C-alpha cells in the first residue's frame, strides 16, 4: 500500500466548494498535490478553487453524464488522479413523504455519481496506482430515524465501496485502494460551529492519517461521540439483525433504555 498523497500527484475532490471537501482540497494543495475541485457552479466554488490554487470543475453530479464530464475536464487539464475523493452529497428528500424526484436526486449524487466516477476513473488510475476515498456516513451504518433516503444512499455506498476494495485488492498491477471515510458530526456548509462538533480540518487530518496507515474504514469521532461509543453503536445496530430485535431498536420505546445503557 502506498500513500497517494504525494507532491505533484493529482487529487480530484467532489463537493470541494464547502465543508470537508473544501478542507481536503486546501490540505492536499498544501502538501504539494495538484488539486481539482468539482462542485456546482457558484461563488463558493470560485473562492475555494482560488484559495487552493486548484483547477475548478463546474459539474452537477445529480445529472447523468456529470461524472463523465468531470473526468474529461480533469484529464484534459491535469491528467489521471492519484487520489479520487468522492465527497459531494445532497441532503434532499427528507422523510417518507418527500417528493420521489428529490429522493432520486439525492441518490444520484450520493450513490450513482460515486459509483460511476469509480467505474470511469479506475482504468485511468490503474496505470500508476492510487486511492479512492468515498465519503460515507455513520447514518449509513447505524440508520437513525429522520432521513431514510440519505441513510439508504450512504448504506448503499458503504456496501458498494466494501465490495470495490475487495475486488481491487485482488487485481494485478499498480495498486488502487478504496476507502470509506466516515465523518462524525462536523460543522460544514453555512452552519455555525457548535460545541461537540468537529471542524472539517479535523476530519481531513483523520483521513490523511487513515490513508497513510492503509485503513479502509476511516471512522471519525467528534467531541460528543467517542470512538468507543461509535464501536458500541455499530455493534448494537448489527445486533438488531443478529438478535431479531425490531429495526432501529436504539430509538424503539421497548429498547431505547437498554440501548442507551449498552452504548454509553
Ligand atoms: N457534516 C457532517 O456532519 C457529515 C457527517 C457525516 C457525513 N458527511 C458527509 O461528508 C461529505 C461532505 O459533506 P459536508 O458536511 O462537508 O457538506 P457541505 O454541504 O459543506 O458540502 C457538500 C458539497 O457537495 C456539493 N454538492 C451537492 N450536490 C451536488 C451536485 N449535484 N453536484 C456537485 N456537487 C454537489 C455541495 O454544493 C457542497 O459544496 C458528504 O458526503 C456528507 O454526506 C458529513
Q: Can you offer a commentary on this structure?
A:
With 264 residues, the chain is an alpha/beta fold. It has 2 domains: 10-224, NAD(P)-binding Rossmann-like Domain (Rossmann fold, 3-Layer(aba) Sandwich), CATH 3.40.50; 226-264, no CATH class. The chain is built from 9 helices and 7 strands, in the order βαβαβαβαβααβαβαα. Strands 3-2-1-4-5-6-7 form a 7-stranded parallel sheet, sandwiched between helices. The longest helix has 27 residues, at 100-126. The radius of gyration is 18 Å and the shape is globular. The relative contact order is 0.12. The mean pLDDT is 97. The site of nicotinamide-adenine-dinucleotide has 24 residues, from helix 1.
What features would you highlight for this structure?
47% helix; 2 domains; globular; 7 strands; 7-stranded parallel β-sheet; Rossmann fold; binds nicotinamide-adenine-dinucleotide; 264 residues
How would you briefly describe this protein structure?
About 45% of the residues lie in helices and about 15% in strands. It has helices spanning about 20-30, 45-50, 65-75, 100-125, 140, 150-170, 200-215, 225-240, 255-264, and strands spanning about 10-15, 35-40, 55-60, 85, 130-135, 175-180, 215-220. Strands 3-2-1-4-5-6-7 form a seven-stranded parallel beta sheet, with helices on both faces.
- Which cofactors or ions or other ligands sit in this model? nicotinamide-adenine-dinucleotide
Count the helices. How many?
A: 9
How far apart lie the N and C ends? 35 Å
- Let me know the CATH homologous superfamily of the largest domain: NAD(P)-binding Rossmann-like Domain
Give, in order, the helices and strands. EHEHEHEHEHHEHEHH
| CATH-defined fold name of the largest domain | Rossmann fold
Report the principal-axis shape. globular
How many DSSP-defined strands? 7
CATH architecture of the largest domain: 3-Layer(aba) Sandwich
Domain module count:
2
- Average pLDDT, rounded to a whole number, is 97
Uncertain ranges: none
Biggest sheet layout: 7 strands, parallel
Tell me the β content: 5-15%
Describe the strand arrangement of the main beta sheet, using strand numbers.
3-2-1-4-5-6-7
- Percent helix range: 40-55%
Task: Give the structural class.
Answer: alpha/beta
Based on CA atoms alone, the radius of gyration comes out at: 18 Å
Amino acid at each position: 500500500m502506498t500513500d497517494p498523497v504525494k507532491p505533484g500527484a493529482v487529487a480530484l475532490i467532489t463537493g470541494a466548494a464547502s465543508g470537508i471537501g473544501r478542507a481536503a482540497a486546501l490540505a492536499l494543495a498544501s502538501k504539494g498535490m495538484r488539486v481539482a475541485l468539482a462542485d456546482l457552479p457558484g461563488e463558493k466554488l470560485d473562492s475555494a478553487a482560488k484559495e487552493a490554487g486548484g483547477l475548478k470543475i463546474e459539474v452537477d453530479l445529480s445529472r447523468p453524464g456529470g461524472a463523465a464530464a468531470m473526468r474529461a475536464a480533469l484529464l484534459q487539464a491535469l491528467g489521471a488522479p492519484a487520489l479520487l475523493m468522492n465527497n459531494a452529497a445532497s441532503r434532499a428528500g427528507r422523510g417518507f413523504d418527500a417528493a420521489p424526484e428529490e429522493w432520486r436526486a439525492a441518490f444520484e449524487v450520493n450513490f450513482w455519481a460515486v459509483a460511476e466516477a469509480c467505474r470511469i476513473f479506475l482504468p485511468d488510475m490503474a496505470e500508476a496506482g492510487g486511492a479512492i476515498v468515498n465519503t460515507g456516513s455513520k447514518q449509513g451504518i447505524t440508520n437513525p430515524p429522520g432521513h431514510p433516503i440519505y441513510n439508504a444512499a450512504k448504506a448503499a455506498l458503504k456496501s458498494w465501496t466494501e465490495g470495490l476494495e475487495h475486488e481491487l485488492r485482488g487485481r494485478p498491477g499498480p495498486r488502487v485502494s478504496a476507502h470509506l471515510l466516515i465523518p462524525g458530526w462536523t460543522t460544514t456548509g453555512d452552519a455555525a460551529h457548535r460545541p461537540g462538533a468537529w471542524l472539517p480540518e479535523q476530519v481531513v487530518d483523520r483521513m490523511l492519517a487513515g490513508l497513510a496507515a492503509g485503513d479502509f474504514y476511516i471512522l471519525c469521532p467528534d467531541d460528543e461521540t467517542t470512538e468507543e461509543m461509535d464501536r458500541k453503536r455499530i455493534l448494537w445496530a448489527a445486533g438488531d439483525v443478529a438478535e431479531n430485535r425490531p429495526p432501529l431498536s436504539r430509538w424503539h420505546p421497548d429498547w431505547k433504555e437498554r440501548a442507551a445503557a449498552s452504548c454509553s
